[in-house]
Amino acid sequence: MQRERPVREAPRAPKAEQYEEYLGGSPEAERVIFEKLARDLMEVQLKLRERGGAAGIDRTFHAKAILGVENATLSIRTDLPEDLRVGFAQPGTDHPVIVRLSNASGIRQPDFAPDLRGVALRIQAGPDRVHDLLMTNHPVSHAKDAREFVAFAQAMADADDPLSTGVALLAKLPLAVGWGSALRMWRNIAAGTGREVRSLALETYWSRGAIMWGAAGPVRYRLRPAPDAPSAPPASKSDPDYLAHEIATRLTKSDVVFELCVQRYVDTERTPVENGAAEWRDEDAPVVPVATLTIPRQDLDTAEARAIAERVDALAFDPWNTTEEFRPLGNLNRARKAAYEAAAAHRLGHRFLTPTPMRNQVVGRVLETGFNVVNRVVPWHRLPTPLGVLNLTVFRQVLRRDNLIDTEIRESVPKTHPVPEPVPEEMRVRRSYDGSYNDLSAPSMGAVGSAFGRNMPAVHRPDLFDTPNPVTVSRELLQREAFVPARSLNLIAAAWIQFQVHDWVNHKRYPAGTISVEVPLPRGMTWRNTPGGKPEKVMRFAEDEGLQAGDGTRPPILFANHASHWWDGSEVYGGDEAVARSLREDGGAKLRLEEGHLPSGPGGIPITGFRDNWWLGLSVMHTLFAREHNAVCEALRAEYPRLDEDAVYHTARLIVSALIAKIHTVEWTPAILATEEIDIALNTNWSGPRDWLTRLGAWLVDEHALTGIPETLPEHHGVPYSLTEDFVTVYRMHPLIPDDFQIADHGSGRLLDTLSLNDVMGARTETAFRKVGLPNALYSFGIAHPGAITLFNYPRTLQTFERDGEIIDLSVVDIVRTRRRGVPRYNDFRAGVHKPRIRRFEDLSSDPDTVARLKDVYRSVDEIDTMVGLFAENPPEGFGFSDTAFRIFILMASRRLQSDRFLTVDYRPEIYTPLGMDWIERNGMKSVILRHCPELAGFLPRDASAFAPWRPVMPGKEQPRVKRR
């Protein structure tokens, strides 16, 4: 009987990780280090721009191109060894190649200046497969790793002559890397730059770093001139572009031909992967030819050739533009992933860096120490106003440093990628539907579906989700016992903040009745979880959907925002293209309205960008700003008749969104935080300091604040932009909403109706609104007060709230969501924003009844729920919410403006139109109201914002009595 032969398995490809060692011990730790190095290289780019006098950002290295062609060919040898036949490297195949030859310096200096030379190849192996190979004409790097590489670049950035170069090498570099490394780097640079270079066609170029070559494992590659290459004349000492002239002349006569070769990995001693300064010697790792590179004979002195050279010069070559079969290896290559992407984005105007002046760093640290001492005795809000503003400015710097936590899900091990797609041209001048492409270097940053960030580490305590019982907390500490008004505000302010929150944040929930949170009820209590449902012993509501990583795992307590994180008016315009287009008039720029009101939609809720939790206040705001959008469209059409309807729509959206951001910044916020310090600080955020003392403080501590954020560059402060779970928590402001409303006639002051919140909520909203009309609704809200954000003032109506087929107690939901999303409890939250912990319940409230109730509900001060603590805290005089909540606001209010391209570098007439810039500058909440309801002019406050109480009309004696519903 014949025995079956065993099937031979193909050799398994080695994994890249087996050859690598990560700085900090892990890919995650190394990524943080490399992000810092990338920022350092961006600073080098800025220094080189200043030194060279260039108008824009150039390459950090290899700034001056000698040759750029798109018609080269890589021909793979027919006798290629079996183990090297990987991917594009198949015997007898040809591949088109883009070639860029360059000098290595970041300054466009004469060709005869001492320098290294480089070559970048882009091999087009298929429609979606590109391989970038980068090499330099010296076999080793001057730096063994990324830290040395950046230290050298920083040391040399200020050197613009031989003397300063010597000072940099002998003084700055040893301080950064030590004398031993500095001397070795100097020797390598001297060896590489000290040779005469006659022609770049006659140079040999080495990869320095290794790459995987499929199953063959790590290799270094090399490009060497063909053996029969014609010689070149001696190097010129006077022609600054002699290398370009030489290769152009050479190409008019013949092809330029190179051999592409590789050296195979042997072992960590003879062929190290992590040390870029170590040579792989030919006797240890023999050179193996794999292909021939041919740059065909051509005339480079034509308009077409010059245009091609310009295109090639604009490309961003990156060794990570490849496939996993050819993954780059080693510290230097991994650093390139962050550094090349950042530098290329910086050069293309997709990413920005504003260095912090040394005086800001020094003075900021001194003032931080001083205010830490002062604030133990006198809080910021009791200091003289100029000192209070300065205190807040310094503290914002502390929060930026300590309270921005990156939660983005990233690849654990660096991965290769295709060449990034170019930015769609329309995305440069308009907001996308889903928030993508705001940051052009990271198109998905802040878009719909991206993760909520954190201002402090998450606390995941499932054992405390129901301790103390959330229903008990709600009934004992939150439930409204008697309406407590906030007399410095009107009810428009309450409607406004919900209107804004719907633009900013939205946790996606599972469909009702599928995956639910169950809250046990206190003894003897039952709850109907659905309309007409039977009484149950648990309260049930839909669970939040967690965010999944790309590998299918679910990080703990990480959630996606299903609104965009940007301030882009998505509550008006929608969060995706389908919704946005459905809201527009057919083929037009305007939003659809029916006799001035939003069109009716399913379930009686109007069709608009965000339709959840609908009530009269939201309908008023949405209607007002839909009308404002249409008014802007009319103005744009009149001023710019050549704009098409799509351009009118998107420009109007930019204008209205920026106007909303301005209103919130300089009107709503100073209204709810009514102190002189906040008024100064917020107006400084938008338009820069008004007085010399504030200007001096900004110059000393935060130079970027001298102009107002719209005149600065985007800045994420080291962490990708997102709104945070902590931000969501401090904006839980449901006590602002009353349980009933008086609707009055603005002409006579006559009371028209008294409605409960249920009467103006959900499907009943629009019937009431259309009966009342926008002028009367605004007037009625303008003369009414919202509730104070305090304990015992949560609307009872919202404690039996029907939503999506569920009946929920929203106060319980607020508590449960905060716990389950990992937001620290109140005392830890205080500590997280640099406030002293409370030790006794009496430290939180001076009211004996409140203290007694807190003690009844909580076993210790460390158990107090965040929302409860924020409501219980005595706020600074004039504040509508607590100082602890305000600390998150200090950080995030500026960040929402500072990170947004359309509110910084692209807040300009070319994008918004001159009319748009003027519209934003001249308008505010009062003018928006009066444009659409001019009859309300006499009721608006003279010396305060539209969010302050309005002047009521005194009704006549004949006013009829209205039956209360």
From TrEMBL:
InterPro entries: A_dioxygenase, Catalase_sf, Haem_peroxidase_animal, Haem_peroxidase_sf, Haem_peroxidase_sf_animal, Oxylipin_biosynth_metab. GO terms for biological process: defense response; fatty acid biosynthetic process; oxylipin biosynthetic process; response to oxidative stress. Coiled coil: none annotated. Pfam families: An_peroxidase (PF03098). Residues 1-22 are annotated as: Disordered. GO terms for molecular function: heme binding; metal ion binding; oxidoreductase activity, acting on single donors with incorporation of molecular oxygen, incorporation of two atoms of oxygen; peroxidase activity. Keywords: Dioxygenase, Fatty acid biosynthesis, Fatty acid metabolism, Heme, Iron, Lipid biosynthesis, Lipid metabolism, Metal-binding, Oxidoreductase, Oxylipin biosynthesis, Peroxidase, Plant defense. It comes from the Bacteria. Its cofactor is Ca(2+). This is Catalase.
